[in-house]
Amino acid sequence: MKYTFKVYRFNPETDDAPRYQTYEVDCEEGWTVLDALNYIKWYLDGSVSYRRSCRHEICGSCAVMMNGKNGLLCNTQVKDLGSKTITIEPLKGFPVLKDLIVDMDLFIERLKAVNPFFESSEPPTDREYYQSPEDRAIIDDAVNCILCGSCTGSCPSFWYNPDYLGPAALFKAFRFVYDSRDTAAAERLELVDDHNGLWRCHTIFNCMECCPKNLNITEGIQYLKRLAFMRKI
Amino acid sequence: MGYRWHTGSVAWILHRLSGVALTFYLVLHIWVIHHIGQGPEAFNAIMAKVQTPLFKFLELGLLGTVLYHSFNGFRILLFDFGIGIRQQKQIFWGTVVVGLLVFAVSGYGMLSHILH
């Protein structure tokens, strides 16, 4: 079936302004948007630039905006977008390096700001750190985050204020604060309890709407808000 | 915003807009009430102005704005307690239905008062 792909094109080094280039692609049944973009790059126009790697929705490289909504190229089927014309644009809120490739440095910086690693003050033993299935269930969603940036790139609070940590970083903070084995919850809470942290989330739900892994991001942020609030009263 | 609207973002932008509108209303309200300090004539004069049909109909708009802002405010409060986050869309439409019912009942009372 024939589809029209409107692809955002911009090379900051040579172009004054972004433009959209249109390609007609005869898509086979079951094609993802990544399949269609690959077809464009391999057979129609080799200059189209985009990131992709695993094509199994686990590396998080190929997050873009498709028909005005963020998601992964590799797990979005062309026919599921529900229109014959498909507009593909880079994630909003990040500087464009070329076409659909954005500079994710800002995203990584915000992530680093919440100390996104396991910390324990207990001395290591020759066994693993035990965690009950019930405790693990609390962070099941948060552990599954692949850091694709769809959520942060969909958040109006982040677009208007890049100093905001953004949903991905806050959800990572939730992942460790609510990890029963981690002992640095108080320090980590201190890092996110800020007007550019937790309190800039206005429960707009764009993040949960687009998350390719369907994770309960806002709930994690709300739980952190509650914890940050409770420790002050 | 160059991004597709959906229930959550529409609820958020309406909450912001209704909040700004209510702030303007509050200023107007205080300005009207402050005439009381200038004596009965001044107060009666301004009250006559705000009792014209135009303001009566604007009051219906005020009712709608207050209802939306308060019902959606309750929705946001639920999220602060960690309740219903996965069901945010259903809760939104629930508040819209309840809000419209309250608007219809109260609006009917106000409208019949205006028309008499």
Your description of this structure?
The complex is a heterodimer of chains A (233) and B (116). Chain A is an alpha+beta fold and 233 residues long. Chain A folds into two domains: 2-102, Beta-grasp domain (Ubiquitin-like (UB roll)), CATH 3.10.20.30; 105-230, Fumarate Reductase Iron-sulfur Protein, Chain B, domain 2 (Orthogonal Bundle), CATH 1.10.1060. Helices cover 32% and strands 15% of the residues of chain A. Chain A has helices spanning 33-44, 105-112, 133-138, 140-143, 156-160, 166-177, 185-192, 206-210, 217-230; strands at 2-9, 19-26, 63-66, 69-72, 85-89, 96-98, 101-102. In chain A, the strands form two sheets. Chain A has a five-stranded mixed sheet, with helices on one face. Chain A has a two-stranded antiparallel ribbon with strand order 6-7. Chain A is elongated. The mean pLDDT of chain A is 96. Chain B has 116 residues and is an all-alpha fold. Chain B has one domain (7-115): Up-down Bundle (3 helical TM bundles of succinate and fumarate reductases), CATH 1.20.1300. Chain B has helices spanning 7-33, 40-49, 53-80, 88-115. In chain B, helix 1 (7-33) crosses helix 3 and helix 3 (53-80) packs antiparallel against helix 4. The relative contact order of chain B is 0.12. Classes of the chains: A alpha+beta (233), B mainly alpha (116). Chains A and B meet through helix 8 and helix 9 of A and helix 1 and helix 3 of B.
